[in-house]
Amino acid sequence: MSSPCSFRELCRKESFTGPTSGILPGYVQANLLIVPRSVASDFEDLCLRNPVACPLLTKTAGSAHVVENHAKFISDSFFDIRRDFPKYNIYLGGKLYQQKSNCMDEWSDDHVGFLIGCSFSFEDALVRAGLVPANVTQGRNVSMFVTTKFLDSAGIFHKCPYVVSMRPYKPSEVDKVRSVTRAFKRTHGEPIDWGFDGAERLGIEDLQKPDYGDPVEMTDDEIPVFWACGVTPQLAITTVGPLIEGFVVGHAPGHMLVLDSTQMF
Amino acid sequence: MSSPCSFRELCRKESFTGPTSGILPGYVQANLLIVPRSVASDFEDLCLRNPVACPLLTKTAGSAHVVENHAKFISDSFFDIRRDFPKYNIYLGGKLYQQKSNCMDEWSDDHVGFLIGCSFSFEDALVRAGLVPANVTQGRNVSMFVTTKFLDSAGIFHKCPYVVSMRPYKPSEVDKVRSVTRAFKRTHGEPIDWGFDGAERLGIEDLQKPDYGDPVEMTDDEIPVFWACGVTPQLAITTVGPLIEGFVVGHAPGHMLVLDSTQMF
Hints:
Chains A, B: It comes from Lachancea mirantina. Chain A has 265 residues and is an alpha+beta fold. The first copy, chain A, has helices spanning 4-12, 37-49, 120-128, 134-137, 174-182, 195-201, 231-239, and strands at residues 29-36, 56-59, 88-92, 95-100, 111-117, 143-150, 161-169, 193-194, 223-228, 247-251, 257-258. In chain A, strand 3 (88-92) and strand 4 (95-100) form a beta hairpin. At the A-B interface, helix 2 and strand 6 of A face helix 2 and strand 6 of B.
């Protein structure tokens, strides 16, 4: 695993099927969503209208190779979105149908693949800035919440809620936490809200009962800080799933594509 | 008033200081926000993170002339954001301080001007599609509401609510209304939500008590349809006003800049 290219080759051979957290630290990782062409334009609109929750990096054009937009962030070398992620979630009718290490059977010329920014890189930056997230210290997955804040609707995508990740910090740390993550414009950027009043604005009732991930302990002098979360687009797919004909494919949570770039600005 | 250029000349000479609704129909109109350079980067981030509510068309670079980004939507001929709008709102400390027909005294080299998409053009398209908004039929200003949906925070811009405009339609018309306005990607685009459940999601309690504009009569078979509204950025300025040193200038509501372009796609 000396390079992203050789790591993707391991995934392509199905020699590696695990999560990518901690793999080749510093390299950008990307989320995946493959949808039937009939809903691709609606999904792209959803991303463009909601760039903080659904930061679109690039999309395929007719073949399995990523060719359009933002090419500078993407590999020069060959990669294949059907095989280069370690694990895939296959959806049918908005329901998780299967987990597989490739989606060769589900992909067709009538699908479009989207790569979406992933927050792994900004968490690394927080650690380097001495603002180690509590979930890292406590060895837990980050807490994620489905909120009452809805994406701005786009085509079939209606009533799709924001999912947020939460990391507790002291109020005095919030300015620095915001500055550090602000730079990651293609991977959710700075927090969308914070504080207990922020939790209320987002309709989060119990910070110890996350909808995804693990509960994270907070001390009395900490407040919650909320970032838009990459689970949002996959939840949008399941929300409108019955309206979608054919397979939808996402990366299995935590099992991302490792790109050749070390920055995302 | 044979052309946008000659209309802007009238404004520059202060021979025209009225609202621009119905002026040179079909030409794109733009909203204005001029902020001190110290908060310009935060304001630009706010727009980029919330493109539906704050659709940024272009910004100035050091002088009064619009030069950067999206130049194809903008005039080839000379225009001056300090004088070419018919009327300006001058803010100080987040409070409306004065209305003037130019902002020559308030503008300085230490200001940055932003042009923002305006929904006049999509209302025209609705009329042409036979979906005449009730406010037009009733000869009233559109109803606008401050919502409990907040922009994704950016720099000093925190806890800034979406403002929405509301136009009532029959449920059977909603699909067509969405399609017609979807194309106006730089001027708020399709509705962000609709229906009485949509009003609830947006925290709107009484549809007959708009925060701006006029109440619009609805029939029993109509539901409210909500678009993001260009008042949002000006409300953001007043929300964080005490944090901003120096003059902020907006167009006076309804008094827009008329551009040379007839489309905004």
